[in-house]
Amino acid sequence: MLRLLKRTKGSMLGKTAKGIVGVYMKKKNLGKLEDFDIDMSEKKLNISFTPKNFSEVLTIEARQYNIVRDEKKQKNYLTFDSIETSGNWDNSEFKKLIKNKRIEIPEKYKKFIDLVV
Questions:
Q1: 45: pLDDT confidence band, cut at 50, 70 and 90?
Q2: 94: confidence class by pLDDT, cuts 50, 70, 90
Q3: Measured at the alpha carbon of residue 14, what is the angle toward residues 53 and 72, in degrees to the nearest 5?
Q4: What's the mean pLDDT when you consider all of the chain?
Q5: What's the pLDDT score for residue 63?
Q6: DSSP result, 39-85
Q7: Cβ–Cβ < 8 Å for 63, 81
Q8: How far apart are CA 88 and CA 24, in angstroms?
Q9: Partner of 19 at 20 to 30 A CA spacing, among 39, 54, 78, 103?
Q10: What pLDDT is attached to residue 50?
Q11: Dist. CA 47–CA 62, nearest whole Å
Q12: 61-92 residues labelled b (16+ CB within 10 A) or e (exposed)
C-alpha cells in the first residue's frame, strides 16, 4: 500500500512539474517541450526541448529541485541548485532565463503541489 502511494505521489509530482515547466516555456516563448522526466530519488529534472529558432534539441538537467513558498509575495516556486545544459547552447544564456534558478508555480498548480509536497 505504501509503495502504491509513493508511486502515485511520484506520478502526480512528475505530471505537475511537467505542466509547470511547460507553462513557463510557453510564457517565455522558449520553444517546444520534447521530453520530460523527473528523478525523485536524485531530485533532478531532465528536460529536452527544441529552442525557438533552433533545429537541435537542447537537454537540460536541473538538480536538487525543491518547492519553496515566498510568504511575502504569497507565491510558490520550483527552485534548483544547479542547471546544466547540453553543449549546443551556452549555459549562462539559459540561466539568465531562469532568474535565481527558480520558476514561479502558476496558481492552477497550487492544489497539486499541496498534495504532493
A1: very high
A2: low
A3: 85
A4: 81
A5: 93
A6: ETTTTEEEEEEEETT-SSPEEEEEES-EEEEETTTTEEEEE-SEEEE
A7: yes
A8: 21
A9: 54
A10: 86
A11: 8
A12: bbeebebeeeeeeeebbbbbeebebeeeeeee
For residue 63, which phi and psi values (nearest 5 degrees)?
Answer: -100, 150
Q: What are the cell numbers at 28?
A: 517565455
Residue closest to 15 by CA, chosen among 33, 32, 1: 33
Set of cell numbers at residue 9 = 505521489
Q: How far apart are CA 38 and CA 52, in angstroms?
A: 23
Distance CA 8, CA 114 (A): 14
Q: What gap in Å lies between CA 95 and CA 40, rounded to an integer?
A: 22
Please give the average per-residue pLDDT across 80-86, as a whole number.
86
d(CA 114, CA 117): 6
pLDDT value for 95: 64
